[in-house]
């Protein structure tokens, strides 16, 4: 099973399962966890190839789904709200199309769209080598922020990029971003919410409105557009995101 960190009271329900973006780790959720752990249980996991799971393999959307289901099974029968950021958003939507009984909600934070990301070959080539040098990792990280983060947050984000495996950094831009699940996932079977940064250049708000929001809206959910925010929402807006998660937990 994927390594994870367990925070908050173990009997608090529903609990949050937090999944990170491409190049990140469980540490991207530290700010959100700090704000919620007094009242909620939060599980922050590392996906294969990243963080404390850097030595693990299996990077396809199918492989990610299998591991997400494994954690959900481990947590059963406790009700779980799945919170996924960017890369893991695509896999989370696939899981939510045929959810296990203890999955009660889905929060998509700047998710990778089901139909694939409209990225040119030059951008993919740049993305796949972002973990090879300190300078490249720093630039990759800067691209995810609307404004310069604190030195501490920036260092954590850069370290996570550099400790990611080469195999994972090749697999997602080469294959994962191209996988098209839109024909296989036509509805989500749990209530969902979409959170998007107004200044996200990686997956822009208009793409989210056209591709992801219809699925979310069909569950009775909505889109939160965060002003003056880019792609790395858990780092940039932990307070706003924590408030959104807490309100959503009350709804489900």
Can you offer a commentary on this structure?
- The protein has 252 residues and is α/β, with parallel strands linked by helices.
- It has one domain: Rossmann fold (3-Layer(aba) Sandwich).
- The protein is 41% helix and 15% strand.
- The chain has helices at residues 30-36, 61-75, 87-97, 121-128, 134-142, 151-163, 166-174, 205-217, 233-236, 238-251; strands at residues 4-7, 15-19, 42-45, 80-85, 103-109, 191-197, 223-226.
- The protein has a seven-stranded mixed sheet with strand order 1-3-2-4-5-6-7, with helices on both faces.
- Helix 3 links the parallel strand 4 (80-85) and strand 5.
- The chain is globular, with a radius of gyration of 16 Å.
- It starts with a strand and ends with a helix.
- Residues 17-243 form the AB hydrolase-1 domain.
- One of its GO terms (molecular function) is hydrolase activity.
- This is Alpha/beta fold hydrolase.
- Keywords: Hydrolase.
């Amino acid at each position: 099973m994927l390594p994870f960190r367990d925070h908050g009271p173990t009997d608090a329900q529903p609990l949050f399962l937090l999944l990170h973006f491409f190049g990140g780790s469980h540490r991207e959720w530290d700010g959100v966890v700090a704000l919620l752990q007094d009242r909620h249980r939060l599980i922050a996991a590392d996906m294969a190839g990243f963080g404390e799971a850097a030595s693990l393999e299996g990077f396809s959307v199918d492989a990610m789904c299998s591991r997400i289901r494994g954690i959900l099974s481990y947590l059963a029968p406790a009700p779980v709200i799945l919170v996924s950021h960017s890369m893991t958003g695509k896999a989370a939507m696939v899981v939510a199309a045929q959810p296990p009984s203890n999955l009660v909600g889905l929060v998509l934070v700047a998710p990778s769209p089901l139909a694939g990301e409209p990225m040119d070959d030059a951008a993919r080539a740049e993305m796949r080598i972002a973990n090879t040098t300190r300078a490249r990792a720093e630039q990759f990280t800067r691209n995810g922020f609307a404004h310069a983060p604190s030195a501490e947050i920036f260092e954590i984000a850069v370290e996570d990029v550099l400790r990611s495996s080469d195999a994972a950094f090749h697999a997602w831009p080469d294959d994962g971003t191209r996988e098209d699940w839109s024909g296989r996932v036509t509805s989500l079977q749990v209530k969902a919410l979409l959170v998007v940064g107004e200044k996200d250049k990686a997956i822009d708000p208009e793409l989210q409105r056209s591709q992801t929001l219809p699925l979310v809206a069909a569950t009775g959910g909505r889109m939160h557009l965060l002003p003056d925010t880019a792609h790395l929402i858990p780092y940039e807006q932990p307070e706003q995101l924590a408030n959104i998660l807490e309100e959503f937990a009350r709804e489900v």
